[in-house]
Amino acid sequence: MTVAASLPPVSLRSRIWGETWRVAVAALIGMLAFIVNFGLSVDAGADDMSLRFGGRVLLDVAVGLCAVPLLLLRRHAPVTAAIVLAACGTVSAFAVPAALLALASLSTRRRPREIGTVAGVWMLGVLVIALTGFDLVGIPVTGGDLVVTVGIVALVLAGVVAVGVSIGARRALMASLRERAQLVAEDQRLREAAARDHERARIAHEMHDVLAHRLSLTAMHASALRHRADLDPAERRAAVETVDDNARGALRDLREILTVVRDPDSSTPDRPQPTLADLDALVRDENVRLERAVDTSGLALVVSRHAYRIVQECLTNARRHAPGMPVVVRIDGTPGDELRIAVSNDLQAPPPPAAEHGFGLVGVNERARSIGGSVTIDPGPDEFRVSATLPWMSA
Asked: Helices (DSSP H) in the chain: which residue ranges?
C-alpha cells in the first residue's frame, strides 16, 4: 500500500493572501476595539475630555496603525515583534488584537521562556498604565479595580497562549505524521527493491545452470573435434553444428543473464559500456576542461571502461559539492606501465568532511582496486583533487 509522503507545498500567492487577510482582520478588530474603548471612556466621563478626544485619540490610532504591519515580521523575528506589539497593546486599544495575534503566533513555537518574556511585558505594561494613567483612550483604573484588571488580562493572555500552544502541537503532530509517512513509503520502496533484487538473483542462478550445461556440451564436442581424427565428414559436421548451436545458445543465455542482473531502470540495456573514447561527450560542460597527454586508443577495454567511470563519478562529485566551479580533467601516463587520471576543482566553500562524500568516491576507490590500481583523495582548502593510477593494459 502506498502512503502519501507529504502534503502539497504552499504557493507564494497563498502565503501572501494569508498574511494579507490576517493583517486586515487585525486592523478591523483593532478599529472595533478602539471604538468600544472610546465609547466606554466617554460613558465613564473621563477627565480632560478635550485632550482625550483630541491628540490622544489620534495617537491611539497612530500607534495601532504602526503596530498592525508589524504582524508581517512575526515569522522572521517572532520574539521581537511580539514584545514590541505587547508594549503597543498596553497603551493602544487599536493595537490589542495585533498584539494578541503575535502572542498566539509566538506560542505555536512552544518555548516557555519566550512566552513568559512576552507575557511579562504585557503584565508590566498593564501595571505601569494602571498606576500612571498613561492609557491614551480608556477608563482610569484605580484601587480595587487594579486587581480585577490584572486578573482579566492574565486570563486573556492565558487563553491566547493556550490556543497558540494547541496550534503548535497540531502542526508538530502533522509534521511527525508526514515524516512517518515518508519513512513508511521509503521503507516500502526499499523492500520492493530488495524483493526485485532477490528474484533477479534467483532467476540469474537458474539461468547460470543452463549456461553451464551449454558450455559443457560445447567444450565436450570441441574436444572431440580436436582429438578425434577418425571422424567421418557427417560426424564432424554434426559435432560442428552442435558446437555452433550451443555456443549461440550460451551467448543468448549470457545476454539474458546480463539483462536480468542489470539495473531494471536502464532504458538502453544493450548499449555498449562507455570508454575513454567517449570522454569528450562526458565533459561537454563549459566549466570542465579536458587535458589529454597520452593516446589511450590502445588501452584495454576493461581499463578504459573503469577510467571513464572514475572520471564520471569525480565530475558528479564536483557538481554536487562545488556547482558552477571550474573542473580540470587530466589524462596522462606511460604506455605499457600506468595510466594516470587527475580530476581537480576549485572550491567555493570548505570541503565537506570525508563522511559527507557519500559512497561515490568509495566506489571510485573500489573500481580502481579491482584492476590493481589506486586512488588518492586530496581535499585541500582551495581545491579538491582526486588522483587515480591504473595499470596500463594493452588491447
From this structure: 12-43, 49-52, 55-67, 78-91, 96-107, 112-132, 145-227, 233-261, 279-282, 301-321, 360-370
Q: How many CB atoms lie within 10 A of CB 39?
A: 11
Buried b (16+ CB within 10 A) or exposed e, 353-384: eeeebeeebeebbebbeeeebebebebeeeeb
Q: Answer yes or no: pTM beyond 0.70.
A: no
Contact indicator for 306, 368 with CB cutoff of 8 Å: yes
Distance CA 381, CA 347 (A): 8
Q: What is the DSSP letter of 299?
A: B
Q: Give CA separation, 310 vs 40, 208, 315, 343, in Å.
A: 81, 30, 9, 9
The pLDDT tens digits of the residues spanning 178-235 come to 989 988 888 888 887 777 777 667 666 766 777 777 788 788 878 877 787 777 888 8
Would the pLDDT of 387 be above 90? yes
* Cα separations in angstroms, 178 against 3, 34, 92, 95, 168: 10, 43, 42, 37, 15
CB 164 within 8 A of CB 108: yes
In angstroms, what is the C-alpha Rg of the chain? 39
C-beta neighbour count of 171 within 10 angstroms: 13
User: 10 Å Cβ neighbour count for 282?
Assistant: 16
